[in-house]
Amino acid sequence: MLELRHLSKQWDHRPLLSDVNLRIDAGETVALLGASGSGKSTLLKMVAGLEMPESGSVWFDGKDITALPPEQRGFALMFQDFALFPHLDVLHNVAFGLVEQGMRKPVARAQALEMLERFGLGGHAKARVWTLSGGEQQRVALARALITQPRALLLDEPFSALDAQLREQLRVEFCDRIREAGMTAILVTHDETEARAMAQRAWALEAGQLKQLW
Ligand SMILES: Nc1ncnc2c1ncn2[C@@H]1O[C@H](COP(=O)(O)OP(=O)(O)OP(=O)(O)O)[C@@H](O)[C@H]1O
Ligand SMILES: [Mg+2]
């Protein structure tokens, strides 16, 4: 279980988050909505360990992880601007996290290829990532995030750079994959329809507070 306890943070003398509390069960996908600038990305970065709260704590499975650096949290992050490595081909992008975890390269590549095939991207394994379409790049990014079997998946507007039709298609696909992996996920989005399609529960961030929508 992922838990946020009394998180607070100011920015520019303005309370960005004030006493935010949230509990997310294992295997659950929740959505975080809210206007631009309301602090959604900041909240996600606190969960990831990229931003520190001024007060409050982040807990995972009964442990206080507030002071734990991002790489020790075992969470995977995915942003709208893909953030794949442009100098690597698709296969090496997906294998990267496994090699970082100490897996031997040939084993990591074999697993990455298997994952790409499952995602319908096997034919693109040797392609440079910048030759892929936006939707394909997001699929590669998800494959790369899931292959390391993270403890939670943090998605910050993962589809906002894509057109409406592709967004809808990827929404369904991502949902299936996240469910398949039994993953705990937080989806930050502007789009309530997207949130309804993907998340069991949702909150809006307004004036530094979370209001439950469903
Ligand atoms: N390092 C920082 N830490 C905290 N807040 C910051 C930082 N840098 C900028 N801010 C400000 O905090 C506010 C919230 O930013 P944040 O990116 O969390 O909003 P958001 O809800 O994700 O918005 P969007 O929907 O546009 O992505 C903004 O006004 C932003 O300018
Ligand atoms: Mg944001």
Summarize, please:
The protein has 2 domains: 1-74 and 150-214, Rossmann fold (3-Layer(aba) Sandwich); 86-148, no CATH class. The chain is built from 6 helices and 10 strands, in the order βββαβββαααβαβαββ. It has helices at 40-48, 90-100, 105-118, 134-147, 164-180, 192-198, and strands at 2-11, 14-24, 29-33, 55-60, 63-64, 75-79, 152-156, 184-188, 201-206, 209-212.
Helix content: 25-40%
**The CATH topology of the largest domain:** Rossmann fold
Radius of gyration: 17 Å
Please name the fourth-level CATH homologous superfamily of the largest domain.
P-loop containing nucleotide triphosphate hydrolases
Please identify the top-level CATH class of the largest domain.
Alpha Beta
Helix and strand succession?
EEEHEEEHHHEHEHEE
Bound compounds, each kind once, are: adenosine-5'-triphosphate, magnesium ion
> Pairing-aware structural class of the strands and helices?
alpha/beta
CATH architecture classification of the largest domain: 3-Layer(aba) Sandwich
Shape field: globular
How far apart are the termini?
A: 19 Å
Counting H and I runs of at least 4 residues, what is the number of helices? Answer: 6
* Stretches with pLDDT under 50, minimum 5 residues: none
Average pLDDT across residues?
A: 93
**Strand fraction band?**
25-35%
Number of domains: 2
